[in-house]
Design goal:
single chain, 368 residues, alpha+beta, Beta-Lactamase, 2 domains, six-stranded antiparallel sheet, two-stranded antiparallel sheet, 11 helices, rod-shaped, disordered N terminus
Length: 368
C-alpha cells in the first residue's frame, strides 16, 4: 500500500510538466494579446477620433474561439478592467443615470455574452475532439494487440502443422538421410540442409549458430531472410547468456523459468558447441526458435540435445566457415590481395582439396 504513490510518481511527472507548460503558454498568450491590443489602442487614440469598434474585442474573440469558456470569461473580465482602468467616462449633459449605466456597461455585457455563448460551443468542441482522440488511441492499442495475437497464432499454427507432419511422416530413414546429407553437404547448400535437419529433429524453423571470437559470441550461420532468428546479434562477455553457455556449458530451455529469463524470448533452447577432439572446450552456441515452449513435444529437450550433438560434430566445418568470412571480409574492406586465398576446401566428390578466391566463396556460401 505504501509503494503505490511512489510507483505512480514517474508517470505523473510528465503530466505535471505538461500542465505547467500549458498554463505558462496560456498566460503568455493573454499577455501578448492584451499588451499588443492596449498599445495599438493608444496609438490609434492619438491619430483616429473614431473609437468604435473597440480593439479589445480582438483578444476576447481570439481567446474565446481558441481555448473555450474559461479563457473566454477571463478575457472578458480583463478586457473590462483595461477598458476602465483609467476611470469611468464622465456622464454627458442631458443623459440620465440609466442611459449612462447602459452606455458604460454595453461593451462589458457584450463581451460576457460573447464569451458565454461561443466559449461554451468551443468547449464542447474541444471536449468532443479529446474524446475522439482517446477513442482513437484505444482503437490503435486494440488493433496492435489483435495484430500481435494473430501473428502469435499464425506462428503457433505453423509450428503445430510442422509437428503434425513430422509425427505422421517422419521415419528413421528420413532422419538418417537428413544426417547423411548434412555431413555430405557442399558449402553452397550447407545452410539449407542444416535447416532441414533442424526442422526434422526439433520442428523449429529458426536457428542460429554463434561462434566464439575473442570475448564475443558472433553470429556465423542463420537461415534465409524469411526465417531469421530473434537472437541474431553478438553476445558479449558479461551477458548472462554468454556466462551460461561458455563458462557453465549449460543447455538452456525456455520451459525452465530461470533459463527463460536468460534467453529473454530470443530462443526456445540454446546450448554450447564443443568439438569432438576437445569436448571441454566451447567454440560457439547453437540456438533454435520460432516456436512456443508450450507447443513443443514432450521429448523436445532430448531432440535438441541430439541435434546439438550432431552440430558439434560439424565443429570443423563451422570453424572453416568462420575463416572464409574473415577472409572475404578482409578483401571486401580492401585489406586483402588479389591473389587466390590458400584455403583448402573439402570436396564432396573427391579427396583432393580445391582452392577458391574468398569473394567467390562468399557468393557460394551466402551464409547471411
Amino acid at each position: 500500500m505504501n509503494e503505490s504513490p511512489v510507483a505512480g510518481l514517474p508517470s505523473a511527472l510528465p503530466q505535471r510538466r505538461w500542465q505547467m507548460f500549458a498554463t505558462l503558454r496560456l498566460v503568455l498568450e493573454f499577455a501578448l494579446l492584451f499588451t499588443g491590443t492596449v498599445v495599438a489602442k493608444e496609438v490609434l487614440a492619438s491619430t483616429v477620433t473614431v473609437s468604435y469598434p473597440n480593439l479589445l474585442w480582438l483578444p476576447v474573440a481570439v481567446l474565446t474561439l481558441q481555448n473555450g469558456l474559461a479563457s473566454a470569461l477571463a478575457a472578458a473580465i480583463i478586457a473590462t478592467t483595461l477598458q476602465y482602468a483609467s476611470g469611468l467616462p464622465p456622464q454627458l449633459l442631458g443623459e440620465d443615470i440609466y442611459s449612462y449605466i447602459g452606455r458604460i456597461a454595453a461593451e462589458p455585457i457584450a463581451w460576457t455574452c460573447f464569451a458565454l455563448i461561443f466559449g461554451h460551443i468551443r468547449s464542447r468542441q474541444i471536449a468532443h475532439a479529446a474524446g475522439l482522440e482517446t477513442q482513437l488511441a484505444e482503437r490503435n492499442e486494440q488493433c496492435a494487440a489483435v495484430a500481435e495475437l494473430c501473428d502469435d497464432l499464425r506462428r503457433r499454427v505453423e509450428v503445430l502443422e510442422r509437428q503434425i507432419a513430422a509425427a505422421g511422416q517422419l521415419s528413421n530413414a528420413d532422419m538418417a538421410q537428413a544426417i547423411i546429407e548434412l555431413h555430405h553437404a557442399r558449402w553452397d547448400d550447407f545452410t539449407d540442409r542444416l535447416r532441414r535437419f533442424v526442422v526434422l529433429m526439433t520442428g523449429c524453423p529458426e536457428f542460429a549458430i554463434h561462434l566464439l571470437r575473442a570475448d564475443t559470441l558472433a553470429l556465423a550461420l542463420q537461415p534465409a531472410d524469411d526465417q531469421r532468428p530473434r537472437m541474431a546479434g553478438p553476445i558479449s562477455r558479461g551477458d548472462p547468456l554468454f556466462e551460461a553457455i561458455v563458462k557453465d556449458r549449460r543447455i538452456l530451455s525456455a520451459r525452465r523459468p530461470a533459463d527463460s529469463t536468460i534467453l529473454a524470448g530470443g530462443a526456445v533452447m540454446a546450448g554450447p558447441i564443443s568439438p569432438d577432439m576437445s569436448p571441454e572446450d566451447v567454440i560457439g552456441m547453437f540456438s533454435i526458435g520460432g516456436a512456443s515452449p508450450e507447443d513443443c513435444s514432450d521429448d523436445f529437450e532430448r531432440r535438441f540435445s541430439l541435434a546439438l550433438a550432431e552440430v558439434s560434430r560439424l565443429a570443423a566445418h563451422l570453424m572453416l566457415i568462420e575463416r572464409w568470412q574473415a577472409a572475404a571480409a578482409g578483401i571486401s574492406n580492401g585489406h586483402g590481395g588479389t591473389e587466390e586465398a590458400e584455403i583448402s576446401l573439402p570436396d564432396a566428390g573427391g579427396d583432393e582439396p580445391r582452392k577458391n578466391p574468398p569473394v567467390a566463396l562468399a557468393r557460394q556460401v551466402a551464409l547471411q
